[in-house]
Fold these 2 entries.
Entry 1:
Amino acid sequence: MSWQLEIDELRRREELARRMGGPEKVKRQHDHGKLTVRERIDELLDPGSFHEIGAIAGKFQPDGAFQPANFVFGRGRLDDRPVVVGGDDFTVRGGASDASIREKQIMAEQLANELRIPLVRLVDGTGGGGSIRSLEEIGRTYVPANPGWEWVAANLGTVPVVALALGSVAGLGAARVAAAHYSVMVRGISQVFAAGPPLVARLGQEVTKEELGGSDIHGRNGVVLDVVDSEKEAFDRTRRFLSYLPPSVHQLPPRVESSDDPERREDWLIGAIPRDRRRPYRIRPIVQAVVDQGSFLELGRGFGRSAVTGLARLGGWPVAVLASDPMIYGGGMTAQSSRKIEWLVDLAETFHLPVVHLVDQPGFVIGVEAEKDATMRFGVRALNAVYQAKVPWASVILRKVFGVAGAAHTNAARVHYRYSWPSADWGSLPIEGGVEAAYRADLDAAEDRDALLAEITEKMNAIRSPFRTAEAFNIEEIIDPRDTRPLLCEFAELAAPLRTAGPSSWHFRG
């Protein structure tokens, strides 16, 4: 006697589940330019590595057809590293709750947490309470709750979480996208919103899905960090992002072999900063020149654009990179860039990444709109994040450091691993403009106002020399810009043994 009949039945049910919503629904998914959930998992993971959990969960319909649960999850390997992946199956009831088994989503979150391995969410549906129509089947209304959200929150402080919005994502689905360390939309096929156009129309706002929650909106407001052009690119970004991070906070970020000489010196850096302090320059070539070649992964380029954030390697060691972009608001700190800085510091602190900060910070952006945006509130949060961080930190002052925002270039209470280029310029206020405010009475009383202004400005320009500051040991080292990479690679080597595995005292909040 054997159990072959039961095994045959198991295989039959597994085959029914693999059909998802049926050929017609699968074709509709493809016609909208989207992969099915099972195709997505195959594209993302190493070939043959997916081990599905709960494949036959679902229910038989009155006509005898099997309707699988519209969430597929399990374990797999990504670049030979174990991960948990879970994805919505839009071909089954469009991701509606009446086809879901919420315990599957909860277990995906819990599994990643308890196995201490990264989690990738492939979000393509609502994943929440569903439509009003479902209340008829329940026979009552209910007080809203998010069962299993404790695991979602816990994972932000435990394992790397990536969320890919791969369709029209609403309600709890949208929350699952936002509650991640790294979130991505695919241009043209992804929309994210609290509620879709039919509900918004009740407010008198007739909009399309793209107008309401398209990538042009959320790629700029910070709901998602990045926007890509295809699902394949989203999967590639996922692999690359995770390559810089440890499997969980209980391990350290791995080093990789680097063929880039740590002693490499780029001659053009000596002229990278214009002598005219009002002239902007491009920061990204400088970042790429000092980190390992090809290693800079910029994150959040469309959001808070006066700050440049990303991950890179120095001598093979992964680091978080923060820089100012003088092409946008002169690099000044806005409400959005402050939020972006806080995000990066939270990520670095959670996953034990040393921070390299290339500084050109003229201060908070000022004006009526800046005040309406609560720039000071969010700027203070960014400043606090810098001061709370315990990970190793190196700052390289390229040019400006002014005011409270400039003070966020490093934690002043820690030992300063800090270098300055000879182009540095710092203080409570820039000399330009500040002279007229400080010497207004003298200038107004002068017979030749312009001559006195020129005289005072010349005197102040002598005082502003970074060599004067170095004489007082208020800046530790002024360096040749061409020495930046060797010194930062040395920092990465020195920082490596200082990293400590385990949960941080505070961690990523989303």
Note: The first strand starts at residue 51 and ends at 53.
Entry 2:
Amino acid sequence: MSAPTATRPAPAPPGPDAAPSPWRSELRRGLAPWAGAAVLLTLAVTMGTDAAEWQGDWARTHGLLRWTTMLLLGPLVAAAGCWQGGREHRRGTGDLLRQAVRGPRARTLAALAPLAACVVVAQLLGTAGVYLATWPYSLGGGLTWGHGLLHAADSVLVAGLTAIGFVVGRVVKWRGAALLLALGCYVLLGFSAYVDTPLGRLAPVQEPGMSGEMPALWLAPVIAVWVGGPALAALVAFTARRKLLTSAPLVAAALAATVLVQTGDDAWRADPRGRRLVCDEGTPQICVTERHQNLLAPAGEALSGLRERLAGVPGLPERFVEDRPGHRVRRGTGEVQLPMFTPLGHSVVRGEVTDHAVYAWEAVAALLSPDCPDPSGGALDDVVWTYLAPTHQRNLSDPEYAIREAERYWGARRAAETRTALKQLDRLRALPDAERAAWLGEYIAAAQRCDLAARPAL
């Protein structure tokens, strides 16, 4: 007798495939990654074009980044949000989606959240990349927590404009709404930034009147509430059943706006690193602020030839000092103003002095022409100037060129004066070192006193 055969249960029919995540669909086939790439490209091209004007200066980098975020990224993400919001209108699927199980809030978040996340992440990555580009050429100083929080407030601005654009795209069915919204954002944000009234303080970019000032820690949260409140109100008004809920973010934004208008420039304070000096051991000393302390060595290298020619000269000013807020270099104090480093892109590019000869020439200008009522020292100034800082910016550096230009533009009389000045330059160079040092000391001392009559003859 055979044993009964065990029957196996029939396999269950295959179930339906799980629906893909909305985030995954948006990131693979939606607008979000393209919008993020556009944000990164805009930051890279805009900042990279003018790299010589910010690379190395933390405050300048911070300011340009924030202006770029507001004036360029703001309209860009608003247009992207509007295009994303109008997707159902373009596809003709609005009526079908309104019959779906998911409510308007879930559908809005599923379409908006990936886009907002991508543009915010791209903005933060681009910001970090720009700071990494300025770090190798740092002039000194650095950023504070307040500066970093302001970039976080800019992220709120980027996300908020994306949300406002999305709501506009859902409400307005016209295909050109995205372009019109971008233009409107650019005009509004640009106009608010240049309005010289208390209402101009409502511009999302809050920058001080003086470069190198530090923001208060409370400034960024207040700006975030001000720029994020209207966006949150727009989303609530579009998705919530109780429209009264929109009053909460609007009231918060109004309070934040009041704080910004009332406080004004009190939100910024002077950076003490912009006042403290760091000096080298040369003669005369070179002193720069702590914000530019990494330029101490390049400035010393640029003025090394001038220092050699001034070696042993008696009665020199003690130091070349960088100009700084709250302090004015005056004659008779033992200080001479150091040539300016800023704005970047001229005398300083990427942490280096671009032209040592021109920089030395400007230092001699401060040495021989302080704040005198009549700074002109006559033809003999050209002689001393050319000796201390030989450069082709002064005609006497190239005798043949100097005589030819004098004859061409001023005639025989000026040509004769130029030949006399060239002979005086030769006599100055031929003097014994001690005698030349004494003569230069007397000449520079008279120039510092603005006493033209006391300048010695040559």
Note: The CA atoms of residues 383 and 425 lie 5 Å apart.
